[in-house]
Design goal:
Elements: E1 5-10, E2 15-20, E3 61-64, E4 69-72, E5 75-76, H1 77-83, H2 86-95, H3 101-112, H4 119-126, H5 134-148, H6 158-184, H7 197-206, H8 217-229, H9 237-246, H10 252-263, H11 271-282, H12 288-296, H13 315-331, H14 335-349, H15 351-355, H16 363-373, H17 380-401
Antiparallel strand pairs: 1-2, 3-4, 4-5
Helix pairs in contact: 1-8, 2-8, 2-17, 5-6, 5-10, 6-7, 6-17, 7-8, 8-13, 8-17, 9-10, 9-17, 10-17, 11-16, 13-16
This protein binds coenzyme A.
């Protein structure tokens, strides 16, 4: 029997099948030959929430969840966070190598010269309700860019794809900042090309009447590091949405809007906003044990804890903890940090969390830090979406170049009724509506 194969015996038929094993996987389509008879469709795998299914081959991000390792294109996240800027990392994600100085300068120039939004996009944003959530505005405005750039439909043209990629990375901070200014009722601020990516973002958020906005260097560097940490995370929910929607060859604005919509959920990018609310609810360190007891009794989850992939300390959470200390040196220490540290201490010693391998994830400390920097909780997911746009686009580019990919289309296990005879309306018997649905 050749090495790197798997032999499966079907006990229903006593037949054996040998299928190749490549990169630690078997091809799901190789199972289709396993049938009980000519009318049998063939064996499928059932994997709700894709717990054990690789949907693509990728060379972008590597995670070892048991060891707590995260690398972009082979470089450990700790090294990139210490030595690079976010745009340098965005280049690495996109092209696979760190840029030379010349390449980096030209990349920065290109991104910087695509930060402006069309005036009609500004008008579009003005139409949002005064209290609109910044993430709802962000998602809708990204989708609206599809109407501004008809050339975005040319997704089979590498040149046009790159044009949209540069535009999107350039424009997401502008849209994010305008969402914030709209939410607080301040006039929008136009980009300033003299500033770095993060400084310019801070300028568009917080510039008031001063002629030139000057960001505190420690805060803008901390934000840049946060952007690096959030730039990609392989096939998570939003990236899978990006790939799945992108596989229909829709334009990247619509695909990024879909990915950002997935990110908005509280189990994904919305978690740091929930962490802050949780810390507010707990209030002081003394209330931590009682709160943990309620988590263990199943009343709710401990937000910012646990991860589908990391069964160890999330390496990003460690860097954020360090970063938070740097920010607090400028802003003063947040009392929420003490509550968070106490939560972490107690949880990490508790059998419930140890048994389930639940550790702090990237969202556990980021919210406290964002708040200290001056961000409102409504902005937290938007702050996640800005750098993740670079990751989504790198994954999209990889998808578009992958000859094995087709339109994404999972299978299902159908458990509904077989063919039934149609019942005319006057012959139908009322079926009580389940109690969980209110009457309407
Ligand atoms: N607090 C308490 N218990 C948790 C938990 C948390 N934050 N996260 C997971 N668990 C428990 C589950 O209840 C389950 O327990 P059980 O085996 O007794 O049923 C067990 O740990 C496994 O969790 P499961 O829900 O199967 O893990 P998952 O991989 O499907 O979920 C998350 C991963 C991230 C969705 C989940 O950990 C979570 O909801 N965390 C809080 C939200 C959050 O911080 N999200 C940001 C992710 S970066």
């Amino acid at each position: 029997m050749p090495e790197n194969t798997l032999t499966i015996t079907d006990n229903r038929t006593n037949k054996s099948y040998t299928v190749p094993v490549e990169n630690g996987t078997i091809r799901a389509m190789d199972l289709r030959q396993i049938k009980t008879g000519p009318d049998d469709f063939g064996l499928m795998t059932y994997d709700p929430a894709y717990l054990n299914t690789a949907s693509c081959k990728s060379s972008i991000t590597y995670i070892d969840g048991d060891k707590g390792i995260l690398r972009y294109r082979g470089y450990p996240i700790e090294v990139l966070a210490e030595r690079c800027t976010f745009l340098e990392v965005a280049y690495l994600l996109m092209f696979g190598e760190l840029p030379t100085e010349k390449e980096l300068n030209s990349w920065i120039y290109d991104i910087t010269h695509h930060t402006m939004l069309h005036e009609t996009t500004k008008k579009f944003m003005e139409g949002f309700r005064y209290s609109a959530h910044p993430m709802s505005m962000f998602v809708s405005t990204i989708a609206a860019l599809s109407s501004v750039y008809p050339d975005a439909k040319l997704v089979r043209s590498p040149k046009d794809r790159m044009h949209q990629i540069v535009r999107l990375i350039g424009k997401v901070p502008s849209i994010a900042a305008m969402s914030y200014r709209h939410n607080v009722g301040f006039p929008y601020v136009y980009p300033d090309n003299d500033l770095s990516y993060t400084e310019n973002f801070m300028n568009m958020l917080w510039k008031m009447v001063e002629p030139k906005y000057v960001a505190h260097p420690a805060i803008s560097r901390a934000l840049d590091i946060l952007f690096i940490l959030h730039a990609d995370h392989e096939q998570n929910c939003s990236t899978s949405a990006m790939r799945s929607v992108g596989s229909s060859e829709t334009d990247p604005y619509l695909a990024v809007a879909s990915a950002a919509s997935a990110l908005a959920g509280p189990l994904h990018g919305g978690a740091n906003e929930e962490v802050l609310r949780m810390l507010e609810e707990i209030g002081t360190k003394d209330n931590v044990p009682a709160y943990i007891k309620r988590v263990k009794d199943g009343h709710f989850k401990l937000m910012g804890f646990g991860h589908r992939i990391y069964k160890n300390y999330d390496p990003r959470a460690k860097i954020i903890r360090w970063c938070a200390e740097q920010v607090f040196e400028v802003t003063g220490r947040s009392p929420k940090l003490d509550v968070a540290l106490e939560l972490e201490r107690i949880a990490l010693e508790d059998e419930y969390f140890i048994k389930r391998k639940l550790y702090p994830n990237v969202d556990f400390y980021s919210g406290i830090m964002y708040q200290a920097m001056g961000f409102r909780p409504e902005m937290f997911t938007v702050l996640f979406a800005i750098p993740r746009t670079a990751g989504w686009l790198a994954q999209w580019e990889e998808l578009m170049k992958d000859p094995e990919q087709k339109i994404a289309r999972p299978r299902q296990v159908y458990l509904g009724p077989g063919e039934r005879e149609f019942v005319p309306i006057d012959k139908r018997v009322p079926v009580p509506i389940p109690a969980e649905y209110p009457s309407h």
